[in-house]
Specification:
GO terms for molecular function: DNA-binding transcription factor activity; transcription cis-regulatory region binding. There is one protein chain. The chain has 336 residues and is an alpha/beta fold. The protein folds into three domains: 44 residues, 434 Repressor (Amino-terminal Domain) (Orthogonal Bundle); 130 residues, Response regulator (Rossmann fold), CATH 3.40.50.2300; 143 residues, Response regulator (Rossmann fold, 3-Layer(aba) Sandwich). The chain contains twelve helices and twelve strands. The strands form two sheets. It has a six-stranded parallel β-sheet, with helices on both faces. A six-stranded mixed β-sheet has the order 7-6-8-9-10-12, sandwiched between helices. α1 packs across α3 and α5 packs across α12. It is elongated and about 80 Å long. The relative contact order is 0.13.
């Protein structure tokens, strides 16, 4: 079975079949549906390697993430793949585990598979690897760590507004001693969130106590250990904001082990709004970072520029929002 048979059954040209398979917007919806029905009827499977050789495009997009065990990333992968499928494209997923060597292996896989673009939803990438992708005219989009230039776009997260909303929420509940569990300081995003927290306290006129800032590892065990260290402070905080939800869940576990109740004794706020957070006990108040929105912006930044990989990239901004649940409450001294 070949493309000519599909064209004959759908009563279109082979070029129209090819455009439909490649997700071209030059084919009307009615014609594209007829072609898809013919493909399904004939059980035709396009040779993607041959198609890449003929067109110079693979219809394959790379997605590099940091940690597949963190629910934030599988949710992002699902959203990215959902929109890619809508456009008739495929996704090659790679996980770095925050390891620079793994990052190099991931980029190598992207080059071997001749991807049309790469969404780098992870920590910093070595300039040498960026230059390697750029030299092959492979479009890139970064999450918070890129600088818009030829062939490169960046999605900036407005951490300041998200953390401001969290601090304002705690302040309104009477909390004046607020702790923070940040991510690993070698990551730009972790440093950015830590800086946003400090600046937010200053704007609200709240006391900054550097002893109440602890470093975690973006995983539950890191949040657990950081919370134990905060419990050893004198005085300990009445509320803790964490750099992501996984550490918030770990922190809640540490409090439970010491007979402390959330939010009666200490309020907890996470960041990301992973699905699991709505089902913790108590349900986690958090700052939502929309994965569908990030995925849509990332994919379109690559796909819309597929015909000109050297065009000037753009800067996109994602606004986080506070989601109030049950893990925050009045500060102990304000409780009736």
């Amino acid at each position: 079975m070949n493309i000519k048979e599909v064209a004959r059954l759908a009563k279109v040209s082979t070029a129209t079949v090819s455009r439909t398979i490649n997700g071209s917007d030059k084919v009307t919806a009615k014609t594209a549906e007829r072609v898809r029905r013919a493909i399904e009827t004939l059980k035709f499977y396009p040779n993607t390697n041959a198609r890449a050789l003929g067109s110079g495009r693979s219809s394959l997009y790379g997605l590099i993430i940091s940690d597949i065990t963190n629910p934030f990333f599988p949710e992002l992968v699902k959203s990215f793949e959902d929109i890619a499928v809508q456009f008739g494209q495929e996704v090659l997923i790679a996980n770095t585990n925050y390891d620079p060597h793994r990052m190099e292996v991931c980029v190598s896989r992207m080059l071997q598979r001749k991807v049309d673009g790469v969404a780098i939803m992870t920590s910093e990438m070595d300039e040498r690897l960026i230059d390697e992708l750029n030299s092959r005219s492979i479009r890139m989009v970064f999450l918070d760590t890129g600088k818009p230039q030829k062939g490169i776009s960046n999605i900036a997260i407005d951490y300041a507004s998200g953390i401001d909303a969290a601090v304002e929420h705690l302040s309104a509940l009477g909390h004046t001693s607020i702790g923070f569990i940040c991510g690993p300081m070698q990551l730009t995003s972790a440093r950015t969130r830590r800086r946003a927290f400090i600046q937010s306290l200053k704007r609200k006129g709240l006391l900054l106590d550097n002893q109440l800032i602890e470093e975690g590892n973006h995983r539950m065990d890191g949040g657990h250990e950081a919370m134990l260290r905060l419990l050893g402070k004198n005085p300990r905080p009445t509320a803790v904001l964490t750099s992501n939800d996984m550490m918030a869940i770990g922190a809640i576990g540490a409090l439970g082990e010491h007979g402390l109740k959330v939010p009666r004794d200490i309020s907890i706020i996470g960041f990301d709004d992973i699905e699991l957070g709505a089902f913790t006990q108590p349900a986690l108040t958090t700052v939502r970072l929309s994965r569908p929105e990030i995925a849509k912006v990332a994919f379109r930044a690559l796909y819309d520029a597929k015909d000109d990989a050297t065009a000037m990239g753009a800067e996109f901004t994602i606004q986080p929002t506070l989601i109030e649940r049950k893990s925050t409450g009045p500060a102990p001294k304000h409780r009736a």
